[in-house]
Amino acid sequence: MSTKLETSRGQLEPSAEARAQDVPEHHEQDIRPPGRFSGVGLREIWAYRELLYFLTKRELQIRYKQSYLGFAWAIVQPVALTFIFALFFGRLAGLSSEGIPYPVYALAGLVPWIFTSGAVSGATSSLVVDANLIGRVYFPRAVIPAAKMLALVIDLVVAFVFLIIFAFAYSVDLRWTALYIPLFVALNFAVVLGMGLYLSALNVRYRDVVVAIPLVLQLWLFVSPVVYSGALVTGWWRYVYALNPMSGVLTGFRWALFGTHFPGAGPLLVSAGTALLLLAGASLYFRRVENFFADVV
Amino acid sequence: MRSDIAIQADGVAKQYQLGRLGGSYDLLSERFGSLFRGRRNGQRRERFWALDDVSFEVARGETFGILGRNGAGKSTLLKVLSRVTPPTRGRVRIKGRVGALLEVGTGFNMELTGRENVFLNGAILGMRRSEIVRKFHDIVEFAEVERFIDTPVKRYSSGMYLRLAFSVAAHLEPEVLVVDEVLAVGDAAFQKKCLGKMGEVTREGRTVVFVSHNTGAIENLCQSALVLEHGRVVFRGGVKEAIRVYMTEVLSTVTATSLSDRTDRGGTGALRLTSFRVEDDAGNAAVGARTGETCTLVFDYECPDGQAQRNVTASFAIQTAAGAPLILHRTNFTNDDFELVPREGSFRCTIPRFPLVPGSYLLATSVEVRGELADHLTVAAQLDVEPGDFFGTGHTGVAGHSPFLVEGSWSVSDST
What we know:
Chain A has helices at 2-12, 16-20, 42-47, 49-63, 73-92, 102-129, 131-136, 143-169, 181-205, 208-222, 237-242, 245-258, 265-290, 293-296; one strand at residues 28-31. By secondary structure, chain A is mainly α. Chain A has one domain. The longest helix of chain A is centred in the middle third of the chain and has 28 residues, at 102-129. Chain B has two domains: 5-97 and 174-251, P-loop containing nucleotide triphosphate hydrolases (Rossmann fold, 3-Layer(aba) Sandwich); 258-386, Coagulation Factor XIII, Chain A, domain 1, CATH 2.70.50.60. The interface between A and B is large, with 52 and 59 residues.
């Protein structure tokens, strides 16, 4: 048997001539042990955009199968919380809403916040939920948490439209600065994607993450200006406060819509910087560990 | 890499950490705990090589088989080829798009309709949306589920579900197709359809890497094959020779299921069974019985006191894996009791047209000497039954409805 082995191995050594006839690179897949740095892999995710589309569609299809209210849930949740917050924080605690009706003020914070917390917690468990896919088929794993986020973007849009109607109902005028909204929404996406990628990858290894996530989100809610105004933080503390990128997203979002407190260019840049660093760091980490998901999950 | 080569693997190795396999994962406390207990704790994890220095090449348009027993590394190799998991060492170069079929119905969602699942599953397997749209009609027709295509698959029968899932996979058109033991699932008709489609695929000149326990399927479909043992390549070459090597390897372990070291036995010990094996029609050692074919159960024995024994009754029983009795056979049923047996030898029981359907069964056995129980093993061995053509028609019965197959002929009479 051993002699047979040696001869068969001998034949496998490619000769110099064989190497010379290599076909063009793009036709060939080269499977090797992963290196330490492999970039962010955007090109590959682009190549798998149709899978991302179908996974997002799956999320939407499953979420509202056999559901009576369907997409109305995108509104029910923020509105219910708005009225609860309006009662406890606006009426009883008397928190400032910077001159606009507290319900409108709270809803403007809750719409991005509910998107953020929903997407982050959904993404965190996503890789483990789809462990079967990961163990059977190759694709860039980032499409799984990304699909979770994209599916919630629909809810975000629905809720946002409702917010505008809600504001008109309370006769709150929108400002021209509302044109800046896409900027803050983009920043919000960066935060969600960064957190989602990082926590989902971490959860593959440490299942503690998914257990801790409700607590983390609760704490995050309180250090973010959702129910209260970001104007409460003053002086140099603004920069520390801005290290939580959601503070930039939420204050900026409200400022753009209603012309409330502007956090200042410095803190906004700090928030944007943290968000982008978070996204970049999370993407690199994700790329480094995604190769081994199938072995661990 | 030569242009007529589709897959070239050089020194592929894959290492796993024991305790990490099969869905286990760290808890943070473990990590933090090891900080306090010192570094050595982290190194205590055992590592093992699931693949070790595996090299081979597959020619373009060839169907290549991978043989090996459970745990030999076949599945790991397929996972490396399909990029599900990276190799620890070595390199594989593959020309063209790879389609992996490691399981039928990956990503199927019970809540979604057949139609929705076809698109989702197709995308997961790497099909373009336009491609799925184009083949949609064929996929549904092949699966024979036209009427239910807009029904959630949770309302499907298991047969419909499998047919639809397989149909999507069968319409995959990559240059290189990697197929795991998918033929092991489903009923016989489904398996036939599966094999037929595989044959079509190879006739179209696509490269296929195929793993199966079914040596018949391997022999029919593959031109060359690789035999893995403990993660290493023990043979690579023509398919007939590969099957021979594989069978020898399997049989070497089959005969190794020795009974002599067993202590979980009863009886006086006047006679002891030492090993059990199955032989086929031609008297060659076999992995197990084959439905519908002649097989011989062979029990080697010895008499510890070195004396020949008189009046010996041998028997065996076959049970389901859950322990339900199926067959009992004793030498006295057929007036075959042995008047005199030599001090060492083998009892053989030949069963023509073995009636049990494929599966894994348990074998119990006992021997009486002069009416006294001499040796008794309640679970002597596992008896594997492989698929065979009982009726000679290619129809292998309906899975789950008939644990036994019996001869029978049908006729109709006119009573008008």
